[in-house]
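Help wanted!
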Amino acid sequence: MAATGQTIAAAPPQEGLRSKLRSASTGFWFMSPALLLVIVFFFIPSIIIFGLSLTNLSTATGFQNWDWIGFKNYEKIFNHPSTKTIAQATIIYVVATLTLFNVGMALLVALLSTHIPKRAGFVFRTLWLLPRITPSVVYIMMWKFMSAAEPYGILNRYLPFLFDGKNLLPNSPWVFVILTNGFVGASFGMILFASAIESIPKDYMMAAMVDGCNIWHRIRYVILPALRWPLLFVTTYQTLSLLTSFEQILLLTDGEFGTEVWSLWAYHRALNNYWGNFQWGFGAALAVIMVVIGVVAAVAYMRFFQFDELVQEPRIEAL
Amino acid sequence: MSQRKWWTVVAVMVVMSLLFTACGNDKDKEEPTEAAGPAKVEEPKIEKITLKVWAQANEVEHWRADGPAQAAADVTDFDITVEPGNDDAGWGDYKKKVTLAADAGEGPAIAVSGHEDVPVWGNAGYIVDFEFCRNKYPEFDDVIPGLWDSVTWQGKLWGVPQDTEARPMYFNKTKLKELGWSDADIAALPDKIKNGEFTLDDLIATAKEAVEKGVVEPGYGYWHRPSKGGDYVQYYFSYGGRLYDPDQDKLVLDKGALLDWYKFQRRLVDEGITPENYIGTEWSIWHDTVSHGNALFWNGGVWQWADWAANYVADLGGQDYLFDFIGYALQPSGIAGQPGGTLSHPLVYMIMSEKASGGKTQDAACALLAKTTTAEINTLHAVGSTHLGVVKAQANYPDYAADRLLSETLYMLDYNYYQPNHVQYGPYFDIIWDGMVKAENGDLSPEKAVDEVVKMMEVELEGFVIIED
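Answered by r_m:
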């Protein structure tokens, strides 16, 4: 009897635990596809790349003759004369493209195109999608011929009073790197911001106008607060995306004229250099550093934008 | 006996009888009885084999892989079918494809690549040394002797040359005439360069004069290659630099020669004979400019001639138009009295190892390469893509001898040099290239660019490079 009594007494907490577990497992099952993808395509490759970064694996060693070399690749990176220059180039590239285009221009175009007649706004946004849907090689060729020396370069040929006839690309490489990436990148934020702006209830706008708000006030006090979530998402996503992207730079300058960014450095070392001998171990160490920077940046963004507040459960349902 | 046991006994008997029958048949095959009559004399079986041959080649270089495919018909000791794979994605991607396939055991039986891959792929075990093949077939005896140096690594041969080339300094005869040179002066230029009587300083002076007199537009006095490539080490060689110490098997950086080279590159811009911000010029613009006679001097390769004739000046007369105004000579030396030279970069056929190719095809690959290394097959590639031949017989082979450019530049192989076969040459070259770009563009002074190169080498190539003052 005593045992039965104990069982009865213990039953309520067990049931509570079970229900909590059941509730947690439901969440887990909903999360599992995404979790699986993250494990397979992020955590496992990250672990493999970290392992690779501790080796001297290269074409010269093949998969048979490599050795574990500890943290020598990391030592090499920290002592490398190019590290500082390439890190600076990466910061310039990411910050300038992100602020001027991927967020800045995207927001501007979204605001403009949602404050003009709907059809005109749609056409305007479609035009901004053109760089994204143009094949990269064709797109970069267009820019190369735009910047070329006279008589081949379009800018030099048709705007001789502005340019001196020389190849513009080596002289102002960052202008072209940021423009080519920015025109492609802006469309992503533009679509998200435009749809977020259009989903703001009209009542808010009406109320603001009744209260005497001008356009700047409406943007500052109504639209921008409503865009916090898309702003967080676009800023975080595009920062990480820019950190790891080098396609346009590869095609435009191949890292010449000081435009070698960290991801392109890793690519050149590990997968593509002129005379072969791909240094997989060294390239992997460069990639690991980028993964760490990416994770730190993501966490910092989440904190800065108070991610917890943005995703907390609605209070009405909590009651 | 139960039914199950019956079935077991029957099954065992069936298996045993099959085994005995099989053994009996084998014996019959091995020891034919006299009663069966005289045994038929069977011809030795020729092994049927399929070989993959991979090459990096544009549309005029397709014989790199198609040559072996055609030569397969001449092989008598194997019945070979070739699966040619010409790839035009660029060298970096091609080498990546070969190495990753080799690591997966799915590489080709034969790969064509630059000779600089010999040490890298040899060290990784992707290719087999060629010594086993060299003396097997007499065709290899006809290879131009000096070319074997390009495939030698650690005292052994690792491949057989597929093509080679010269990188001449081209000059515009019409513009030189406008500048006041006589026909005799122009005709004598190649010999003067050969004898060290016309140096890189003379080149700058002549080009500068042409710009000042309006014979060519400013910046069009001398056009070197506009992008990364081995051509640049010619200037380093021209100033007495060396890349490799065979005794120590180490790369060498001669700081003095490097500084002279970097100073030369900057002078080209400062003197106004090469455009500012020139590196990075689109290849199509470069080809268009030089093939239409807009530059006075330029440095290129013999293989570009076919490209210009077919794709840039076909409407003006193709090769005839080019011969009318273009002359060619060795790359001038930077030191008076020293002969000019040229960089050759032979591509070579390499036989992949069993591990890399996934098959025991090395003997068949050797037989195939013997029939590929002939005047008949190699001339298809040489003439089609204006590359120099690799066998001695080509000098008198009618199709080759009839090609004016190839015949007139063949002597340049007597003055050629190669890049070294060293596992770390790739990173070494990247470093000296980066320094050169900074020096020419004025981002760093030549002296500072050299200092930066030295620092980079000390970090990246510690133990692999000798730095000489």
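OP: Thanks! One thing I noticed: The mean pLDDT of chain B is 90.
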